[in-house]
Amino acid sequence: MGLTKEQIEYYWEHGFVPVPGLIPAEQVARLRARYDQLIAEGPRAGGPTPSQEPEVAKGRAGVAPSATTVRKFERLVPYESLFLELASTPALVEAVAALIGRPVQVWHDQSQLKPARVGSAKPPHQDNSYHRIEPADLTVTAWVAIDEATLENGCMRFIPGSHKKGLVEHLPLPGQEHNLSPADVDLSTEIAVPCKPGDVALFHTLVLHHSLPNRTDQWRRSFICHYIHPDAASPTDHTRLPRIQVSN
Predict the structure, then answer these.
(1) Does the pTM exceed 0.70?
(2) What are the Cα distances from residue 85, in Å, to 147, 159, 190, 230?
(3) Which of 5, 85, 114, 163 can pair with 220 through a Cys bridge, CB separation 3.0 to 4.6 Å?
């Protein structure tokens, strides 16, 4: 299954489109269990390394670093078969191909876990401030909800239409060169996108987005896959693992 004509039009108009129930519940349950294992295992040689919440790592959050304060993983797809399976899920790949064409490749992936109580806000930003992919229309980000994402635990929030303005000047926050101060972004039109487990938000690399802190007692884990068409490239390509093709 790909996307409907209405979903495709919504994406190009708003810079994002929610796609409910794209990943089956059984698959999400297996992913959730594997996240639990990876978090408990901690760092391991030859595999992805978990990162702690910054304020926890700096000793400023009132709690010690632990398995319950892990913030994110980078690049699970090359090392973990379940996450390669997720990135290759036919319904997801078909939806991506409806936006950027074929073939579809995985350019990068990350997992933002936003742990209970200490999960920090992610300030407004554009993915292409990091990625610098051109043409920007030939890459799309898929944000997959592993846990329920709510208004209270930090669901994604998008500034509709902001992708049409290109890459904005990022006047960085201290120590956060790719983020913008919320005071410098007009959030009056933002659209919050709560998600059930298995829901996916597809969004353009230039759309402004952010999330608020997690103030609940539950994780808000998400898998984020940055897909790309072979005709697109980035000056950071040489610093990354080889692309993984997931469609013909």
Answers:
(1) yes
(2) 18, 31, 32, 20
(3) 114
